[in-house]
């Protein structure tokens, strides 16, 4: 699996997988995307290795059929709720004689930033550079190609408990795949649904999942706040199940189908017929259902407002981007968020054909992060392919001259094939 970068997002209710690559114009192209149910994780922690592995297998098998290619290596996202972030500075001397900074120097300074005291039960899973400093000049985003004698970096060091990472890798290995790297989920998701202006001026990324609501604030292109609320879409489902005495599965279905807390539907009450346990039909008031949903969403938004105010970012943010299928898909939830927090709110949707759904944000973000950071060099792969073609051509040249016409025909059809391969 060399032509594509595959990113997966393992959540509490589903596994999402995306495959992407660079097209001929050096733009990231998402070729395939899929999702399958999974119940092996709870709040970012593996609670059932077999169930998690099964969800990964099903998602990647579907993705293999979509892209018509075998998948071996994958990149995974790790939830912000289980990570700890600390800041550190790395310093190195530029190694080249002409004092030109290379990618090797950048790799060295990032490794230097990782030299910190790490608790015995934790490990470093990632380094996110905030800014580079060259000979005292700061706010540099990409120092490669610049000249200097001293290279520094201010970086965020991401740590996680070793047992959590170990169980996640075991699930992936049991599924028959190999993890080539970890991407921090809040940053990956921001790459997929936020623009550069939002990352700069101060924006809240609200990821409402099944079990938790993750809070990420970005300002000056940096992640300045990473927090969570222990409430999500399943909380509303549980409320419906308890109040209306319905099975969890039926509660989830009517939440998605009839959930509507807009003002226009306040007076339009009707009865919803539900097939409850033992094949009995139960009638539920639509207004009562939506009162239950609205009450919990309002509580989550007030808790969110309190959390932002506590950290001092309520007045700092200029807008809110909401993702996740837990609450954002309920009609009217965005209006409540806008009313309580007093900020412009929009739903974050990836701008890729066939992937215009908030639940795919993290998987697409993993692909974008891996490709944009240069972890995969597609140019080398292209050179390898060209070398193979030239080797084949040299074999043809050793044949008799009478086969030259067939060689030209083969070359023509080969070019046509390569064109369509690159195009699609």
From TrEMBL:
<feature type="compositionally biased region" description="Acidic residues">
    <location>
        <begin position="397"/>
        <end position="409"/>
    </location>
</feature>
<dbReference type="GO" id="GO:0051301">
    <property type="term" value="P:cell division"/>
</dbReference>
<dbReference type="Pfam" id="PF02491">
    <property type="entry name" value="SHS2_FTSA"/>
</dbReference>
<keyword id="KW-1003">Cell membrane</keyword>
<comment type="function">
    <text>Cell division protein that is involved in the assembly of the Z ring. May serve as a membrane anchor for the Z ring.</text>
</comment>
<dbReference type="InterPro" id="IPR003494">
    <property type="entry name" value="SHS2_FtsA"/>
</dbReference>
<feature type="domain" description="SHS2">
    <location>
        <begin position="5"/>
        <end position="193"/>
    </location>
</feature>
<dbReference type="InterPro" id="IPR020823">
    <property type="entry name" value="Cell_div_FtsA"/>
</dbReference>
<comment type="similarity">
    <text>Belongs to the FtsA/MreB family.</text>
</comment>
<comment type="subunit">
    <text>Self-interacts. Interacts with FtsZ.</text>
</comment>
<keyword id="KW-0132">Cell division</keyword>
<protein>
    <recommendedName>
        <fullName>Cell division protein FtsA</fullName>
    </recommendedName>
</protein>
<keyword id="KW-0472">Membrane</keyword>
<dbReference type="Pfam" id="PF14450">
    <property type="entry name" value="FtsA"/>
</dbReference>
<keyword id="KW-0131">Cell cycle</keyword>
<dbReference type="InterPro" id="IPR050696">
    <property type="entry name" value="FtsA/MreB"/>
</dbReference>
<feature type="region of interest" description="Disordered">
    <location>
        <begin position="386"/>
        <end position="409"/>
    </location>
</feature>
């Amino acid at each position: 699996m060399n032509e594509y970068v595959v990113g997966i997002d393992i959540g509490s209710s589903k596994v999402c997988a995306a495959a992407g690559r660079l097209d001929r114009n050096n733009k990231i192209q998402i070729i395939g995307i899929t999702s399958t149910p999974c119940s092996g994780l709870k709040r970012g922690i593996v609670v059932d290795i077999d169930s998690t592995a099964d969800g990964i297998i099903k998602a990647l098998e579907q993705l293999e059929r979509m892209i018509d290619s075998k998948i071996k290596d994958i990149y995974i996202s790790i939830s912000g709720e289980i990570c700890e972030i600390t800041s550190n500075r790395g310093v190195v001397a530029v190694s080249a004689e002409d004092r030109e900074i290379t990618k090797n120097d950048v790799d060295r300074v990032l490794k230097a930033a990782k030299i910190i005291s790490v608790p015995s039960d934790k490990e470093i899973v990632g380094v996110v550079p905030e800014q580079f400093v060259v000979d005292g000049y700061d706010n540099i985003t990409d120092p490669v190609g610049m000249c200097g004698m001293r290279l520094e970096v201010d970086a965020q060091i991401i740590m996680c408990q070793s047992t959590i990472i170990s169980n996640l890798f075991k699930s992936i290995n049991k599924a028959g795949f190999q993890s080539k790297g970890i991407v921090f989920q809040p940053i990956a998701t921001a790459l997929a649904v936020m623009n550069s202006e939002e990352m700069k001026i101060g924006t809240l990324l609200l990821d409402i999942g099944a079990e938790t609501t993750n809070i990420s604030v970005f300002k000056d292109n940096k992640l300045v706040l990473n927090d969570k609320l222990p409430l999500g879409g399943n909380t509303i489902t549980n409320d419906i199940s308890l109040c209306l005495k319905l099975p969890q599965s039926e509660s989830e279905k009517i939440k998605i189908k009839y959930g509507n807390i807009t003002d226009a539907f306040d007076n339009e009450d009707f009865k919803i017929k539900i097939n409850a346990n033992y094949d009995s039909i139960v009638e539920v008031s639509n207004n009562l259902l939506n009162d239950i949903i609205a009450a919990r969403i309002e509580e989550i938004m007030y808790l969110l407002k309190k959390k932002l105010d506590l950290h001092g970012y309520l007045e700092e943010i200029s807008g809110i981007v909401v993702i996740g299928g837990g609450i954002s898909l309920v009609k009217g939830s965005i209006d409540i968020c806008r009313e309580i927090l007093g900020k412009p709110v929009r739903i974050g949707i990836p701008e890729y054909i066939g992937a215009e759904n908030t639940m795919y944000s993290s998987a697409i973000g993993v692909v974008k992060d891996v490709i944009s950071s240069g972890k995969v060099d597609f140019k080398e792969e292209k050179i390898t392919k060209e070398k193979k073609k030239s080797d084949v051509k040299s074999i043809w040249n050793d044949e008799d001259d009478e086969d030259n016409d067939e060689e030209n025909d083969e070359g023509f059809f080969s070019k046509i094939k390569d064109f369509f391969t690159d195009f699609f």
